[in-house]
Amino acid sequence: MLIEQGKISAIQLACMIFPTILATSILSVPSMTMHYAGHDMWLSPIWGALVGLSAIGISLGLNRLYPGMTIIQSSIQIAGWLPGKLIGLAFLLYLPHLIGMILREYGEFISSSALPRTPMFIIMGTMIAVCAINVRLGIEVIGRTSQVFVPILILLLSLTFLLLTGELHIGELLPFMEKGLIPTLKGAIGPSAWLSEYIVLAFLLPYVTNKKKQHMTRIMLWSLGITTATMVISNMFCLMLIGDLTDSFAFPVMIAARYITIADFLQHIEAVIIAVWILGIFVKISVFLYILVVSASEVFGLQSYRPLVAPIAFLCLVYSYWVVSGQPDVSKALGASGNVYTMMFLLVLPAVIYLVALIKQAWGHNNKKRRPA
User: Which of 11, 153, 199, 324 could pair with 329 in a Cys bridge, judged by C-beta atoms 3.0 to 4.6 Å apart?
Assistant: First the structure.
């Protein structure tokens, strides 16, 4: 039985996932992929999309085998009570760390780009507070706010890319595949970590009203395609504007936006990127905070998740100080080891759960066939 009785549409779910992945990746992925893939950095998100496709497949597969259950609830059915609870605890240990990391990355970006004199506690505290209010109001409110914000995000990003077209140097895309395929695959580690966040479907699909297999699959594939295309385009624009210096900046897209100047009239477009970041981070933290408090309620057998929202939100704020101590540590945490750590929880663990579910289903099917009539 679901703790939350609210419902969202498949489109609202797709709108929740788009900023959940792109909010942080669009600023950080270009420098990561440039470091490994060089001038072929735009190819890396395409390989990373295979991880996103796997996460979507796992989520839809679990929902097919255990309809109406989140991955926490289905884990108990698949592995048994104690192992299932331990799997739930593993997610509960990881998610505050992830939210704290997102919150600290947001705080470092806003502090360095817009509010250098504002205490970090105020920047991060106000964001986690409004996200907590959003989560307490339920999944329907999160879905609606996402549905409102995503068109604005797409419009602002499209405007930024459009205004940058006059500054592009297409020659930066060459030479193509100079060092072969391996560097592009190494560069795909970063995008793969973000695209593994499609596993949030395994937590949120039970709340979707229309879950026809073909309908959900089509919408999620469209979502993955648009998300990957946005990553590829942002990588290409950074490369064609900044070139080999792309991996020298923590937030290359922000640097690219500063190139925009039209007749001394249209300037400081980096404010648009800041707006995109704030709106996207609001949705991203809201989604993961909602998943965390609902999962905690399911693991500990609570009837409502709402009493947990405020204390867990405060815990995530504390984690934002524990996990890193400044921008250099943020960059290290977003490196290859941090991305592998993320995929262990968001891809490998759910994949193992799904594999056990398939084996259990096949075993039960074979036993039923052998049973005498």
Answer: 324
